[in-house]
Amino acid sequence: xxxxxxxxxxxxxxxxxxxAACGSGAPGPFPEGEIVGQTVNIGHIQRENRSFEVPADKWxxxxxxxxxxxxxxxxxxxxxxxxxxxxxxxxxxxxxAGGTARSGQGDPVGFPWGxxxxxxxxxxxxxxxxxxxxxSLLDGRDAEGEVVVKEQFLCREPEERLFYLGRWYxxxxxxxxxxxxxxxxxxxFQKLIDGWVxxxxxxxxxxxxxxxxxxxxxxxxTSLDKITFAEWLRQNGLNSxxxxxxxxxxxxxxxxxxxxxxxxxxGLFYFCARVRxxxxxxxxxxxxxxxxxxxxxxxxxxxGENIRTSQIVVSVVPTDKGxxxxxxxxxxxxxxxxxxxxxxxxxxxxPYVIRGFREDPPFAAAEFQHNAWFxxxxxxxxxxxxxxxxxxxxxxxxxxxxxxxxxxxxxxxQKGIDYGPTILTYYYPMCAEPNARTTLxxxxxxxxxxxxxxxxxxxxSDIYELTTRxxxxxxxxxxxxxxxxxxxxxxxxxxxxxxxxxxxAHTDLSGVALFEEAFYHGLRAATEIRKEIRTL
Length: 536
Hints:
- By secondary structure, this protein is α/β, with parallel strands linked by helices.
- The protein has helices spanning 5-13, 15-23, 40-44, 71-82, 129-134, 180-198, 219-222, 229-235, 241-255, 264-272, 293-303, 350-353, 436-441, 445-457, 463-466, 491-496, 515-535, and strands at residues 35-36, 59-67, 88-91, 103-105, 110-112, 118-119, 138-141, 147-149, 160-164, 167-170, 285-286, 307-308, 311-318, 323-329, 332-343, 370-380, 397-400, 408-410, 422-429, 467-480, 502-504.
- The chain has 3 domains: 5-30 and 370-480, Protoporphyrinogen oxidase, mitochondrial, domain 2 (Polyamine Oxidase, Chain A, domain 2), CATH 3.90.660; 42-100 and 291-367 and 486-535, 3-Layer(bba) Sandwich (FAD/NAD(P)-binding domain); 184-274, Guanine Nucleotide Dissociation Inhibitor, domain 1.
- It contains 17 helices and 21 strands.
- An 8-stranded mixed beta sheet has the order 1-20-16-19-18-17-9-10. Strands 2, 3, 12, 13, 14, 15 and 21 form a 7-stranded mixed beta sheet that branches.
- Helix 4 packs across helix 11 and helix 9 crosses helix 10 (264-272).
- The model has no long low-confidence stretch (mean pLDDT 94).
């Protein structure tokens, strides 16, 4: 769009900061880089609802076709391989499988293009733990039976820091300069969180658990889904600016939603689901430089040639004999006759791809609303210099208090490489925009780079001279947005059920975009199909 620089920065970073940034003169020279990932036009072919005639010699037969190679689709394929079932194919739109868990390879380490960690699961998650064992990430169990992750895969200290008024401070809650009332409210908030962490229903279920299938459906809990997290804070007399920012950061970070856009249920889920009991820390993070790309790479090493990339699935057609899946391979129509299909793509795409869905919809696909993000990977020739000798040091997660962005993750941190070249992964959720996806795709590489560098320059004045390259990924449909009246509305439960011979598997079905949820649904769908195939 033909906006002035001040208008651009106002839109993304706010008017006061844009005014100050533009008043300080032109930005430094831009580095090299590009927009990466598929163009938006490829995905839009699915929305055109066109019919494609597949030549007779371009059809093949498989027992199962998996539509979508994100974590859910890859998990289903991994499950099939583990059971020595190989008569399937994974059809992925992008040039690489993995969805938002994809990663890139740089110098000196790899880096994430989206999801960058997995919290250590509780011992109750008996489905996920075998994957971690298979990947040699574990070092046994502790006295309570909880898994022990090998030290090199646990997030290294220091984990988090916050930039405020020219200085870096430890942690994500801003304690420096906090008033007695700020601290009183933070303590009151923590006591409310502790109460929900310890809460159990009549069946012994937690209010908030991972995967969501284990959560209580008691009305005392589910009623929290009817209001926003902002309203819940107000109802509990919590209005401290610092606490509100802290909670708003949480919802932006995990859901791409602001405090008054996310439901109170998901807001509390963020703080409660991964805490074993009150008084203990939240579960530590499993991470490597490439983030959750480590799981994608593991899945791909096992699934192998069953994955086909750059496949635009345009039709999934239920038939009397099973399902016909039609895709474009380099623009050429190809088809797969199969007995069953797993639809592991975002749920909102179902009406555009599955024939007969619009005429007799099994669930309200339009209710599965997604948000837009952009992610930038900055390649630096050296570390930014601290402004003050006593600044809290460069950490894994680095957040700017005043910014609508989420800050950046340092790729080299986990390897203990604390000097020299590094890669910073910068995240910006478009949660403040009513037409976020359209807005995001209206801007080119240079404009988004300007936003990124200008934002980071408030904390790192030498960011322009240190950055040698910036590549940007625009995620138009990054992840599900759990707004009020969605998680416990009954919509998800309907979508989990198979539609004729099509089984659904995607993190959308949980309403929160987490690795554990995608893994759960991929495993569930694969198990359902294996039972059905055995009876045929």
